[in-house]
Input
Amino acid sequence: KPNLLSGMQPSAGSLHLGNYLGALVNWTKMQDDYNAFYCVVDLHAITVPQDPKELRQNTRITAAQYLAAGIDENKSALFVQSHVPAHAQLAWVLMTLTGFGEAGRMTQFKDKSQKAGADSTSVGLFTYPVLQAADILLYQPKAVPVGEDQRQHIELTRDLATRFNSRFGETFVIPEGVILKETAKIYDLQNPEAKMSKSGDPKGLVNIMDESAVIVKKIKSAVTDTDAAIRFDREAKPGVSNLLGIHSAISGQSIDALVAHFDGKGYGDLKGEVAEVVLAEIEPIRDRANELLADPAELDRLLAKGAAKANEQAEKTLATVYERVGFIPAA
Ligand code: TYM
Output
């Protein structure tokens, strides 16, 4: 089986519907056909300030959600990034191959650093995509399932791998991003031109760990438009299109079938049904995640098992890299 790697940040206290539909659903599907490594990227989380106690809790919450959504710890390695020292070690080597301008062109860095201002932007945020490249390249994966917003980081990863290979000899597999077309981007319910994100409007953000009543309220207050027709048109009707997209992603019905189904009905009907579909999908995951969180020692044991598997693969790649760049063996 080919290898696969992906990861998510633990910073929000809960994954949101965009993380789930854009990436996690695909992770669970792909784990049968790939030797998969799924990571909670706590090193990435600290590129913006984190409360240590909350970070610990959020890391376990994220891992519990992976499991609750169907990641099987016997098929895939589920681990925490800081448990595998090779991530930071390879990132250092790759940083020496990354251009200052090249890193400066990453749009997520530009957005985040512009919002925060230069004095509140850490150097870690600047080098974030290089650490992400290290996460990926250590596992020699063919596939990296992510949402649309990660496309540029995957491109950088491919460029760095190609650069390393041509300078030091074939070392890294060049990975492909696997981006689901239909759910590549789930939009903010309050601001449906922007992606759903933990840094967006909290009312526009559906969290997997939210109470059911909260989820229903957020979906029922989703922004639509003044024209009452239920059609799919991202430009003219971003809010309605987002709701149709979410429904379709979960129910498996095509957009055309849904538009026919809602013919003659109103936005209230659409929102009511989307809320039902979302709850039916999310509630069991939330409840299972809460059960897992009730036994943190068991969760930590699963994560230790995943880290052992990940370390084995990662150390192999790092040893080759160290040797290729000219470091002498430590022995
Ligand atoms: P993160 O933690 O922001 O998001 C995790 C995954 O969810 C996807 N996603 C979305 N998909 C659709 N619609 C949305 N609104 C939406 N919001 C988020 C993201 O594309 C991602 O797949 N840099 C990464 C974490 C990372 C990583 C890696 C990913 C670190 N190392 C190695 C892959 C491989 C990030 O911040 O994702």
Remarks:
- The first helix runs from residue 17 to 30.
- Strands lie at 3-8, 35-40, 77-80, 143-145, 176-178.
